[in-house]
## 1
Amino acid sequence: MDKIELLRILYLEIKKENDFPNNFQRIYHTHLYCHNGSIKFLFNDQKMECKSGQFLFWFAESRLSGLQFSKNFKATVLLVEKKFLMDNIPDQSWSINAQLHSRVYPVKPNISILDKQRILTNFSRINERFLDKEHRFYEEALKLQMQIFILDMWNTFAKEYENRKHSLQTGTLYERFIQLLQEYCLQNREVKFYSSRLNITPKYLNHLCKIHSGITASEWIQRHAKEHIIVLLQNKNLNISEISDKMEFSSRSFFTRYVKKLLGVTPNEYRVRLQ
């Protein structure tokens, strides 16, 4: 595994769990296009499935377990070393929405023929770029290819993200709550805010979430807040005070205590770990 850990890009054909490298979930962000069969798994304690013709994205170190592959399963997979991907995310305002949406909805079900072609072509191109170590401008070209890859992925995710936003009007109360979380959790971390938007009591919203997902609305809010904080702390263009202001904390010290409660470390300690 020591040799594999040095690779920033891995391009694989997967038919069973053993085709993945050891500890891949810890080291790599996973991009998977399913050609045949299906893969079932637990993601944040929720049962999910990726079927033929669908795309799947797992962040490294996701709460992922219970992988089950159908007998006829076949997928093309691109694994990207976690730091390499995060270091090359284009500085776009849509970045946070894309990352947070994928942390809640890792399966992209509505993949068009054009999206499929774009995904598989990008898999191949970035692998070819990674292997072309004789290129005079190897590092620069590889980083640019990574950024193009990410922008194309965001383009695919954006379609599904916009479709899910419609559930604010048409979905169940639980679905509407999850969408509201994605829209407002950067600044609003109280159950009362969301229950008032849905015209129900905080107690009933907690009850609905418990029935649908096994966790309360309060726990969902904490999870989303945690994901927001992680994404923002990984953005080297923002300092701690700017992140605190962006999330509308009353003071930097309050923000620091809140982060320590969620992550177990202070914002500065978390950033040191990223180095």
## 2
Amino acid sequence: MARIGYARVSTLDQDLTVQLAALKAAGCDIIRSEKVSGSSTIGRDELRTVLAFIREGDTLVVTRVDRLARSIGDLQDIVRELRGKGAGLLATEQPIDTSTAAGKAFLDMLGVFAEFETNLRRERQAEGIAKAKAAGVYTRARTVDPEAVRRLAGEGAGASAIARQLGIGRASVYRVLKGAP
């Protein structure tokens, strides 16, 4: 009976250190981690590895249920898969332990709230974009015109001047001049 830890953050610049330390303190024999969005289980290779590896009597340990899934459907699918293999789920920072009735109930409630939070965030983002568009502040990122960059460079303009004139970043100018796509 092994304790298998799973840690996840959404972006590359976020840090896994706190989660990894908590999983080690919880007695996890194996810990897998990844930096990928939790809004779907698609593309979460480490989670797939854990779910393929976990055996009867093992426990999947996470710090919080939102590290495992952001939608109630995904959460239920994961718990069903664990249950089908005779494995359990434990969260170190929440009273979730699928070996108890109270833990199962709390898991379901937290899953609903995690999905609700995700939906609220999407609504706020959409409202913000609509408001910015209405105010004329929201614009699509400019696309780089490689021919214009090369033409200006051929005329002797420097990277900063080209970037300023075309409204793009200097890094984009350098990429074009180096022949990168």
